[in-house]
């Protein structure tokens, strides 16, 4: 990992009161409120720190695609991107160039990301249950 990336993550750790914060294999994870795991991924080839967090159901389906596309239209999330990972799970991501990665900027970026995480976690999970009949499936019901 490059020296600037090591310094960026160490400085962020100091600002967050976590002096031992470091990346391993270019990834550092932050657990937020026991609900979200934000990965800080060093993308050295682009000189960026990519913030990424899984949201919504464990697998994206057709009904989620339109919501995700709308989220990215004209960068409606203020630079935050909603995308699908190779495992099929939705992620909210934000890239911060190294030259803009001072602790105050990173903390602001984390707050913006967390705001979008909460919004999209709720929207995708709500879309997951929409269209399903309430209660157990008729397949599981037995005549009495």
Your description of this structure?
The chain is α+β, with helices and mostly antiparallel strands. It has one domain (3-129): Yope Regulator, Chain: A. It has 3 helices and 5 strands, in the order H-E-E-E-H-E-E-H. A 5-stranded antiparallel beta sheet has the order 1-2-3-5-4. The protein is elongated and about 45 Å long.
What's a concise summary of this model?
This protein has 144 residues and is an alpha+beta fold.
Order of helices and strands: HEEEHEEH
Kindly state the mean pLDDT as a whole number?
82
Q: Tell me the helix content.
A: 25-40%
How are the strands of the biggest sheet laid out side by side? 1-2-3-5-4
N-to-C terminal Cα separation, in Å? 65 Å
β-strand number: 5
Which structural class do the helices and strands define? alpha+beta
Q: Report the sheet-strand fraction.
A: 15-25%
Per CATH, the architecture is: 2-Layer Sandwich
Per CATH, the class reads Alpha Beta
How many structurally independent domains? 1
CATH topology: Yope Regulator, Chain: A
Largest sheet: 5 strands, antiparallel
Low-confidence stretches: 132-144
SS element count, helices: 3
The whole-angstrom Rg is: 18 Å
């Amino acid at each position: 990992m490059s020296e600037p990336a090591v310094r960026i993550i160490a400085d962020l750790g100091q600002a967050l009161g976590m002096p031992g914060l470091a990346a391993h294999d270019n990834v550092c994870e932050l657990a937020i409120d026991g609900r979200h795991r934000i990965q800080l991924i060093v993308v050295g080839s682009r000189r960026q720190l990519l913030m990424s967090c899984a949201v919504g159901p464990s697998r994206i389906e057709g009904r989620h695609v339109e919501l995700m596309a709308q989220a990215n239209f004209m960068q409606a999330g203020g630079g935050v991107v909603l995308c699908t990972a190779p495992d099929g799970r939705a992620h909210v991501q934000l890239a911060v160039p190294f030259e803009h990665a001072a602790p105050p900027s990173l903390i602001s970026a984390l707050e913006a990301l967390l705001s979008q995480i909460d919004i999209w976690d709720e929207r995708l999970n709500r879309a997951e249950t929409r269209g399903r009949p309430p209660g157990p499936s008729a397949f599981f019901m037995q005549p009495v």
